[in-house]
Amino acid sequence: MGNALQKTIQQLKSDNREFFHMALSVDCVIFGFDDNELKVLLIKSDLEEFHDEWSLLGDLVMPNENLDSASYRVLKDRTGLDDVFLEQVYTFGDVNRHPAGRVITTAWYSLINIKDHQLSLAHNELHWHPVNEISTLAFDHKKILDTCLKQLQSKIDEHPIVFNLLPEKFSLRELQSLYESIHGTKLDRRNFRKKFFLMDWLIDVNELEQDVPHRPGKLYRFNADRFSDGKKENVQEAQLH
Amino acid sequence: MGNALQKTIQQLKSDNREFFHMALSVDCVIFGFDDNELKVLLIKSDLEEFHDEWSLLGDLVMPNENLDSASYRVLKDRTGLDDVFLEQVYTFGDVNRHPAGRVITTAWYSLINIKDHQLSLAHNELHWHPVNEISTLAFDHKKILDTCLKQLQSKIDEHPIVFNLLPEKFSLRELQSLYESIHGTKLDRRNFRKKFFLMDWLIDVNELEQDVPHRPGKLYRFNADRFSDGKKENVQEAQLH
DNA sequence: AGTGAACGTGTAGCTTATACACAATTTAAA
DNA sequence: TTTAAATTGTGTATAAGCTACACGTTCACT
Fold this sequence. Notes:
Helix content of chain A is 30%, strand content 26%. Chain A is an alpha+beta fold.
């Protein structure tokens, strides 16, 4: 055939019904941070082929639903949260990636504050898994997870997105520990602090940590004003170099 | 419905044929470099809705075809080239993005040496357009082009991919002009040269430019050995900072 | 009162990025 | 054959950013 896209859908239907024997899905890699570990929200697969394997949260895209709406819907259904950070990463379309048939999936990752959805978690077969303890997942979901983690790693040094994983007020130790979990490295404490103060991403809220068995650190919140509205892009660009 | 992905395709077909009333396509942003300008290969749309508008090169994904195979096929059909640089960028899935029906498209960009496919070009309605002279395209293709260009811009400083746009031997002026075209900026000549020599991406082939109306510059080729095989990833990582 | 644990702070050395000018080579035109 | 136009090839000084590194302070716990 020539260029199928130049025909109408009606023509295609009569030409070859096979075009429609495929489905499109979204899969969400939902990251959380708890207990000094980066975690991801998974569900037990109930497909026979992957009995007892864990898988990412996903669903088919509805015929009248935008692609990004589908991923927001999955998030909302599973965590009860909307207004979360969500970013598209990659589309996986190997013919045999899904045992039930041709399913092409678009992968997204999301950053949420793990404390915000304790309630909805109880009603599900969902569990948080430490990212670096996951060696296999159902389908090609391990590959999807790895791809999303890499994307996250490359974003956090230049874009202020990790704050979506933290409570509103946090200490510099928590922030550094989060960066270390995502990158899988250790960072120098003094240089880390200096860098963040210079970047002006933080606001001192004049409070101290509570209930820590050592000298409490100061608490900060994310300086969201610097990244709001029209200024957002300019400010981000300015920090790229 | 619950999680449609947990059902089989057979179940889905009986549930709701609407799931299959959509199609998946690929669209390729094929970049070339000629006459000191970054260009993109476009085709006249023959859809009535976009009469006389230009559009990217794309096609539907076949039911038994991997997603990346589909984009390679489009490239091969349109340029006669295989073994080209091709990278997935983003999937566009708004319900009404295509007037003929629900078509979700995955965008890719490709870098080719514009001289390599003169022949196949003659048999088509294809034309090279300077990227910065394009203000509208059919469908949402302008948005797709912009997204791919941004991706290209953010890649070229850390990954040695622009050489796909150049002939085997090139002068430093050509290389700098290419970077300037992609970034839309002017660069300092001395610093540009110093940076490239330090990066060790180039090999001096001990030849001079021919037929230039001024003092000829030395010719170089890309030091591909440094990025081949298993070493590839390590070397690239080492240059990220 | 003493111990353990993490907090808060500054500097020196190194690497990287930027700004910037002039003599040499080739072609083309007078 | 001289001259003008265009572009090549080259180095240094300054600024900015990254890295490595140590010690006194504060709080909880016993």
